[in-house]
Predict the structure.
Amino acid sequence: MSRILVTGANGQVGRELLQALAPLGEVIAGDRTLLDLTCPAQIRQTIGEMQPDVIVNAAAYTAVDQAESHVELANAINGTAPRILAELAKASGATLIHLSTDYVFDGTKQTPYLENDLPHPIGAYAQSKRLGEVGIQGVFGIAPGYIILRTAWIYGVYGQTNFVKTMLRLGAERQEIKVVADQIGSPTWARDLATAIAGFTEQSLSTTTQPASSLDTFLMPPTGIYHFTNAGAASWYDFAVAIFAQARSLGFPLTVQRVIPISTTEYPTLAQRPAYSVLSGHKTAALLGSDPPPWQQGLQQMLTNLYSNTYESHCSVGR
Ligand SMILES: NC(=O)c1ccc[n+]([C@@H]2O[C@H](COP(=O)([O-])OP(=O)(O)OC[C@H]3O[C@@H](n4cnc5c(N)ncnc54)[C@H](OP(=O)(O)O)[C@@H]3O)[C@@H](O)[C@H]2O)c1
């Protein structure tokens, strides 16, 4: 049975991965206690003992604004640790699937970013994530065995906070909410992303565990940079409007009456964010054989799940 290690197992993507990967093998939940990515010696020892076939690195320093004042920590977790994971994966013949971000781009393009477009990260978080990509590619060179999967604007049922949860909280407290309307990206449901990662994992496992045959040349595992987000594009304002419309129809308690579009300059943040960071998903869709669901569909399913978890009784006693 294949062994799949998920780092960041308590994060919003990590939690979804534990379920999505379960049909593919033994899934090891690598949370911070098992695998602290600031500690290279522990990473080496733990992975040496586990001998996973696939490592899915969903752990990261994800506080985009705080990273500006914690550059060293962000670089250690997002830059150095992925390189160490790559060294260990390469040495043992395991596949490394590493999550990266749309924020490696500066947002000056006006059409979806391709995998081979030139990255130009504009903040400390973005730079630390790019450091991770460069480190992994430096270790593997032209050898197969790694996937860098860039994604964007993630929200999920699990995890402490995300844009959807923040909007629902504010929407239950306020009448008016101002939301940035001049940053464009692709909202992505963590569960759809986890399903795509399971697709990559399945292909990697099936190609690396095939017996040698004359078909070997056709059985190369997927390798390199790929993009995955839900389909379509939206501004944070569009996203907020859709969240409130869908949440209201599901029955979430909301007081908000008006969503007001504002510009980035009216909502200054410590870290600068790209104005446009839509990722082209064609390469991934071709590999996985399916297009990603539209972002509105992912949102509907996430909100339905969240509503059910939050407001519906799951008590079976007395049924
Ligand atoms: N969120 C987004 O919008 C977004 C967009 C593009 C790309 N991404 C990328 O997608 C991936 C998953 O993101 P996410 O949204 O699931 O993030 P998340 O919910 O913030 O989860 C990150 C996980 O990393 C863990 N972690 C942090 N520091 C660690 C350390 N020193 N050692 C071990 N684990 C550590 C956290 O552990 P604790 O639970 O113990 O804190 C948490 O479980 C990341 O690579 C992120 O950069 C995210």
About this structure: The domain at 3-160+186-232+278-293 is CATH 3.40.50.720 (Rossmann fold). Residues 8, 10-14, 32, 35-38, 58-62, 77, 99, 101-102, 129, 151-154, 159 surround NAP (CB under 6 Å). The first strand starts at residue 3 and ends at 7.
